[in-house]
C-alpha cells in the first residue's frame, strides 16, 4: 500500500531485475512505489489508490504495454512515461496517441529518468492551471468550448471530447499565448518548467494528438498552425472568449 503524503509511482515492468532496481531507486528518491506486470495487477493497484505517475514498459508478456496504457487512461489521468527498448518510432507514437505523456529508452540512465519524473510532476495539471476560474467557465473558440476543469472539449454539435492531462495543459498554454509563435523548446519550458525535460518530438506528437481531437469540431488547421522550422501558433479566431460554459 502506498504511503499517504508522498508522490505515488506505479512501475509496470515484467523484468524482475529492472522492476527491483526501479522500486529501490524510486524509494530512495522519496517516492511511494507499487509495481505490477499484468493488467489484473494494474487494476488492483488502481482500485486502491490513483498513482501520481506511471512508468510503463511497452514489452510485457501477457498484455501489450499499449493495451495497458489504454486501460490506465480509461480510468485515470495520471501521467504515463513509457519505458521501452523498442527502437521503432511508430511504437512510441502509438503509445503517445493512446495518452502517454513521455517516453524513455532502455537502457536508461537513472538520473535522467528521475529528472523526467520530476519534470512531469512539476507540470501543472489542468485543474491547477485553472484554479482562478469558476468550475463552470470555459474558453470558446471555433466550434468548441474548452473546460480545463473537466479536461474536455464541447462542440456546438454536442460532441464531448475528453482530453488527457498533457493535452489539457498544452491547450491551456496555447490559449494563454494565443497568436504567439511558440517554439518547441519554449513550449517545453512553459509546460515542464525545465528546458530539455522532454524531446521536441514529444511536443510534435502531442500537438498532432490535440489536432486530431480538434478536427472533430472543424477548423483545426486554422486553430493550430505549424510554422515550419519555428514552432506553432494557436489562433482562436475573432469570436474567441472566456465565458460561462453551460452545464453538461
Give structural notes.
The chain has 248 residues and is of the alpha/beta class. The protein is built from 10 helices and 13 strands. It has helices at 16-28, 39-48, 65-75, 89-97, 110-122, 126-129, 165-176, 184-192, 200-214, 220-223; strands at 8-12, 32-36, 53-57, 80-84, 102-105, 137-141, 144-147, 152-155, 160-162, 181-182, 224-227, 231-234, 241-244. The strands form 3 sheets. It has a 5-stranded parallel beta sheet with strand order 2-1-3-4-5, with helices on both faces. It has a 5-stranded antiparallel beta sheet with strand order 9-8-7-6-13, with no helix packed on it. The protein has a 3-stranded antiparallel beta sheet with strand order 10-12-11. Helix 3 (65-75) links the parallel strand 3 and strand 4 (80-84). The model is unreliable at 125-135 (pLDDT under 50).
Number of strand elements: 13
| Strand order of the biggest β-sheet | 2-1-3-4-5
How many helices? The count is 10
Strand content: 15-25%
Average per-residue pLDDT, rounded, comes to: 81
Note poorly predicted spans. Answer: 125-135
Distance between the termini: 36 Å
